[in-house]
Amino acid sequence: MWKKIVSALIILILGASVAFFVFKTEPKLNNNFETEHSFFKKFPFRLGLDLSGGSHLIYKADVSAVPSGEVGSSMDALRDVIERRVNLFGVSEPQVAVQHSSLVSGADEQLIVDLPGITDVKKATEMIGQTPLLEFKIEIQKDTPQTATVDKDGKVNLDINSQFVSTELTGRYLKKATLEFDQNTREPRVNLQFDDTGTKLFAQITKDNVGKMVAIYLDGAIISSPVVREEIPNGQAVISGNFTPNEAKLFVGRLNSGALPVPITLLSTQTIGATLGDTALNAGIKAAMIGFLLVVFFLIFWYRLPGLVAAVSLCIFIVIILTLFKLIPVTLTAAGIAGFIISIGIAVDANVLIFERVKEELHSGKNVADAVSLGFSRAWYAIRDSNISNIITVLILFWFGTSLIKGFALTLGMGVLVSMFSAITVTRIFLSTLTFIGEGKIARFLFSSGLSK
Fold first, then answer.
1. Which residues are in the SecDF P1 head subdomain domain (predicted)?
2. Residue 453's pLDDT is what?
3. In this predicted model, which residue has the larger pLDDT, 413 or 183?
4. What distances in angstroms separate CA 298 from CA 301, 303, 311, 424, one per listed residue?
5. Could you tell me if 138 and 205 are in contact, meaning their C-beta atoms sit under 8 angstroms apart?
6. pLDDT (tens digit per residue) in 27-37
């Protein structure tokens, strides 16, 4: 019995600690938030575009060099790169959408990017970043006309860019980039490793251009033009130039974060306000609190002592979920909050199943301790099956859904998993601890349904 009491006390202390953390890290709850330690200031709730506003960016993608049959796949790849760059963990819910040329004027595609919570346009564009456009070009045929200019002294200067022609090999086929240092000069250089497709393209380019230059372009400017000595079949290329170590490190990081398959240009930026606004957000929080209190009142009225235990378990469930939202962190939108509220209902449902089974065992003549033990054991299968079906649904939504749907699926899935812990572990420990009150009429009254037969 003492072990159960100690376990219950530990859970209560941990629950209170988690609740204290949520309170200290939320400026809407903690009036002294500005004077708190810097540790607590790192974990405020992150609100989505519909609740906190953000930045709306429109990019133009230049697909003039992309074959018509590959425009769609190139734009999809561009969208994936941008989304991955601003949402490394898939939880900040950026909205990145492709607007095809059939819907806009001109031959170029457009990319629409909405960044929740980022109202500083400059910061938003820095988050997107101009990921390097890496291109490999080969020398033109000898009889191909070249562009030349004449300066004021009458000197003819050939345009170096006109001496090279584009190939299919771009940063799109880059697998990874690493920073190295020349063993002799100690100058930094960047080693490129292509994927399978890029390896084949690079091998063919070097095979066909032995003794010729292959120019490496970065963002439209030539940075290196080595002469090919022999075919390179392993898909590795080295870029050396006037890099400082910091520049080379930054260049490698930008390449690895996702090389853009096509060049993009920022067309317009706009800072947008919250569509629901603070008023609606506060009203939603107020409604959630009222609903929670009504549910707690019903549980205590209907199930008496088990209902009180369920209310405590539900409070622990809520503070655990809110803490996870802060620590991951999860960007909360209206859809995400809806998933969280549904998970509260699922947590209540698990407790109802358990208490009804306990009530049935009591009616069959079992003592309180045995009724609690059997009630949990026999309710577990229904709880397990219902939660597995919920998790399967969540995985499907998260896998195939848009960013908005993923936010709903994420909060719902987290709620389902934590609700299983709170219902099976927390509630069971508390109820098992309370069976010490004995087997008298008072005990059976406290553990029976308020309107039982």
1. 167-262
2. 46
3. 413
4. 5, 8, 10, 20
5. yes
6. 888 888 888 88
pLDDT at 182 over 90: no
At 91, is the pLDDT very low, low, confident or very high (cuts 50, 70, 90)? very low
Q: What pLDDT is attached to residue 391?
A: 95
Fold for the domain defined by 134-259: Gyrase A; domain 2 (3.30.1360)
**Residue 208 corresponds to which tokens in the numbers above?**
């066909």
Q: φ and ψ at 73, to 5 degrees?
A: -70, -35
Where do the structural domains in the chain lie, given as residue ranges? Answer: 2-44+277-447, 54-131, 134-259
Task: Output 104 or 121, whichever has higher pLDDT.
Answer: 121
| Beta-carbon-side half-sphere exposure of residue 434 (alpha carbons within 13 Å) | 20
Say yes or no to pLDDT of 152 above 70.
no
| Weakest mean pLDDT among 34-38, 114-118, 232-236 | 114-118
398 to 73, 91, 391, 392: CA distances (angstroms): 22, 11, 10, 10
pLDDT number for residue 390: 93
**Token pair of 346, please?**
């699922």
pLDDT of residue 183: 81
Q: Which CATH number fits domain 2-44+277-447: 3.40.190.10, 2.60.120.580, 1.20.1640.10, 1.10.357.20?
A: 1.20.1640.10
pLDDT tens per residue, range 262-284: 788 888 888 777 665 677 677 77
Angle at 170 between CA 166 and CA 174, to 5 degrees: 160
User: HEC states along the chain?
Assistant: CHHHHHHHHHHHHHHHHHHHHHHHCCCCCCCCHHHCCCCHHHCCCEECHHHHCEEEEEEEECCCCCCHHHHHHHHHHHHHHHHHHHCCCCCCCCEEEEECHHHCCCCCEEEEEEEECCCCHHHHHHHHCCCCCEEEEEECCCCCCCCEEECCCCCEEECHHHHEEEEEEEHHHEEEEEEEECCCCCCEEEEEEECHHHHHHHHHHHHHCCCCEEEEEECCEEEECCECCCCCCCCEEEEECCCCHHHHHHHHHHHHCCCCCCCEEEEEEEEECCCCHHHHHHHHHHHHHHHHHHHHHHHHHHHCHHHHHHHHHHHHHHHHHHHHHHHCCCEECHHHHHHHHHHHHHHHHHHHHHHHHHHHHHHCCCCHHHHHHHHHHHHHHHHHHHHHHHHHHHHHHHHHCCHHHHHHHHHHHHHHHHHHHHHHHHHHHHHHHHHHHCCCHHHHHHHCCCCCC
Whole-angstrom distance, CA of residue 225 vs CA of residue 228: 9
